[in-house]
């Protein structure tokens, strides 16, 4: 890739890209899990959860593109395989057959895991004086916090 000159040092761009790669891996894994649950949810809250899961996975599909493009803008390669995501992600895929309550509980926890990963990247962005990455991560945190709340509300 040609030289990147955005006012951020090569070291800061690398740290930010590494952090964003973890957010990308968490987000993509959560996308896959949410889509899985959308297809496979059953029970008395089927329609509401089917629709909620769809809204959330569609948001994640757009988010992963924005995050990957930010990594590329910083001059680094975005991870793009299940193998890479598996090594980077704190969110874990689900190969079991949970009931609707387990699905909701797991997705709420995973949404909060992504918030934590975003929070780590915001710290890096502050240290590097990178308001663009900071803004992207703050927006994602807001979405994931709200999603976790909406999911937990189904368990009340």
Automatic annotation (TrEMBL):
Ferritin/DPS domain sequence ranges: 18-155
Any one GO molecular function term: ferric iron binding
Domain of life where this protein originates: Bacteria
Protein family according to the UniProt entry: Belongs to the Dps family.
Protein name, entry field: DNA starvation/stationary phase protection protein
InterPro entries registered for this protein in UniProt: DPS_DNA-bd, DPS_DNA-bd_CS, Ferritin-like, Ferritin-like_SF, Ferritin_DPS_dom
């Amino acid at each position: 890739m040609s030289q990147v000159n955005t006012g951020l040092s090569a070291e800061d761009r690398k740290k930010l890209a590494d952090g964003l790669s973890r957010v990308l891996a968490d987000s993509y894994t959560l996308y896959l899990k949410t889509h899985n649950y959308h297809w496979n949810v059953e029970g008395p809250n089927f329609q509401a959860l089917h629709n909620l899961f769809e809204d959330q996975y569609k948001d994640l599909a757009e988010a992963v593109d924005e995050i990957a493009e930010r990594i590329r803008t910083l001059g680094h390669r975005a991870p793009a395989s299940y193998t890479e995501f598996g090594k980077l992600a704190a969110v874990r895929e689900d190969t079991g057959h949970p009931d609707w309550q387990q699905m909701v509980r797991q997705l709420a926890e995973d949404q909060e895991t992504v918030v934590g990963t975003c929070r780590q990247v915001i710290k890096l962005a502050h240290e590097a004086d990178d308001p663009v990455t900071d803004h992207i991560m703050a927006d994602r945190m807001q979405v994931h916090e709200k999603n976790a709340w909406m999911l937990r509300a189904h368990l009340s």
